[in-house]
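Ticket opened by: R.M.
Priority: normal
Category: complex prediction / small molecule

The reporter submitted a protein together with zinc ion and asked that the result be attached to this ticket for the collaborator who will pick it up next week. Submitted input follows.
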Amino acid sequence: MSVSILAASELVVVSSIPAGLAKVLALIISYCTAFLVLLWASLIIWTWRDARVRIPQRDWAILATVLVAVLWLPGVVLYLILRPPETAVNQYLKVFEAGMLNEYESRLRCPACHQPVRSDFLLCPCCGAQQRRPCANCSRLLLPQWRHCPYCAVPVAAREPVSAVAKRASA
Ligand SMILES: [Zn+2]
Ligand SMILES: [Zn+2]
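Result attached by the on-call engineer:
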C-alpha cells in the first residue's frame, strides 16, 4: 500500500516537471554519462600505458588493465597499491649503474703502489698514500688534486700532491 502511494507521488513529481526543465535534466544526465564513459576509457588507456612501463611481463599488464576495465575506480585504486614503484627502465638503470660502479671500484688502483683501493678510502691501506680527503665544508670526499669542492663550491686549501705523500709514507 505504502509502495503504491510512493510510486504515485513520484509519478506526480515527474509529470509536474516542465518540459524545458526535463530537457535540461536530460542534457545534464547525457553529459554526465558521456563524461563517465570517457573517464572510464581514459583510465583503461592510462593503466595500460603505466603498466607497460612498470611491468615487464605483458600478461600482467593486460591483467591490470582488465582489472581497471571491470572494477573501474576501485580497480584503479587496487592497481595504484599493487603496481611496482618504479618503471622497468628505472629498475634496469639501477642494476646497470650498480654494475658500472662495481666495475669502476674493481679497476681503482693506488697511484703510488698500484694495489686495489676503493673510492671511499682516505689512504691506501698498503702504502699509506693519500687517496681522498674530506671537504672541510661539506665533508664529502675529494680527490687530492682538486682545488674546489664540486659539491658545495667552496675552494679547497692546496695540499701536497699524492706522490709527495706517498714518498713520505714509504720513507
Ligand atoms: Zn698504495
Ligand atoms: Zn664541499
